[in-house]
Specification:
Strand order of the largest sheet: 3-2-1-4-5-7-6
Largest sheet: 7 strands, mixed
Number of domains: 2
CATH architecture of the largest domain: 3-Layer(aba) Sandwich
Order of helices and strands: HHHEHEHEEHEHHHEHHE
Number of helices: 11
Structural class: alpha/beta
Strand content: 15-25%
Radius of gyration: 19 Å
CATH class of the largest domain: Alpha Beta
């Protein structure tokens, strides 16, 4: 069993996404998934999907691939809305939980670097909401993006989530008192860029790193957002809010999550690409 598998055997992703900081991320991500679905549905109904079908497309005609699906928080919810969802998950423990939910999701064990079980242009929307967190080299990240590109039809959307460098430096470096040791052992460069080590489990990116990956894969950005904004920095504050105030915080976050001056400062960034 790998360190990553051992980690996720203990990590409860469903629980994380039901806590308030996780709810911000989930609500925001689902908003943009649905926005992409709406665009793809409109485009298919106006121009077809290349198959020759000229009728009206329904949710069941929207094919979604969730790579790194975890325990199925997104894929099961989307399948429940009537979409044709396929999930790929590396960790057998997570896959078992996903399958136990008895949804219509077609779930397979696999990883983002090899999606060879799927033909080219098989999906309208592809989600990469976890794999990039745990790939440490440019080459592996590029391979994952290339595979997502291959299985997504032209005109489809690819949504890619990343963990961000400044969040890692501020929390695990300065808040937790590890910054000096990280500089000494090479886990931080002198420019305060996180240097990935597989034993750390997570990799952290800056916007220029994401831009370089997109350029290498020839993918055009549709939008880039911060799915959680300051939520991870504010966990105790969010937890102390009454529900009405928390709802106002979510409204505030949704109103600013596309602001370019804020993207990159949160724990995660969600890059939305046009195939």
């Amino acid at each position: 069993m790998t360190e990553l598998e051992e980690y996720y055997n203990k990590f409860n992703e469903d629980k994380r996404l039901t806590r308030r900081h996780g709810r911000v991320e989930y609500i925001t991500s689902m908003k943009y998934i649905h926005a992409c679905i709406d665009v793809v549905m409109k485009e298919k109904n106006e121009a077809g999907d290349g198959s020759g079908y000229t009728g009206t497309f329904t949710p069941a005609d929207i094919r979604i691939l969730d790579v790194g699906a975890g325990t199925g928080r997104y894929s099961v919810a989307l399948a429940g809305e009537g979409y044709d969802v396929t999930a790929v998950e590396l960790v057998k423990y997570n896959l078992g939980i996903l399958k136990s939910k008895k949804s219509s999701v077609k779930a397979f064990q696999g990883n983002a670097l090899n999606l060879s079980r799927f033909a080219d242009s098989s999906f309208d929307i592809t989600l990469l909401f976890g794999p990039m967190y745990h790939l440490y080299t440019f080459e592996d990240k590029h391979q994952a993006l290339e595979e997502a590109k291959r299985v997504t039809r032209p005109g489809g959307r690819i949504l890619v989530a990343y963990c961000m460098n400044e969040y890692g430096v501020l929390l695990y470096g300065f808040r937790d008192g590890n910054v000096k040791q990280c500089l000494e052992d090479g886990r931080l460069s002198k420019e305060f860029k996180c240097v990935p080590h597989p034993e750390d489990l997570y990799d952290y990116m800056r916007l220029e790193d994401i831009d370089a990956l997109n350029a290498a894969s020839g993918l055009e950005r549709y939008k880039i957002i911060s799915p959680d904004g300051p939520a991870n920095y504010m966990r105790p504050v969010l937890n102390a809010m009454d529900e009405e105030t928390f709802d106002l915080f979510v409204q505030y976050h949704l109103s600013v999550c596309e602001r370019q001056d804020l993207i990159g400062a949160g724990a995660h960034t969600l890059d939305i690409l046009i195939r």
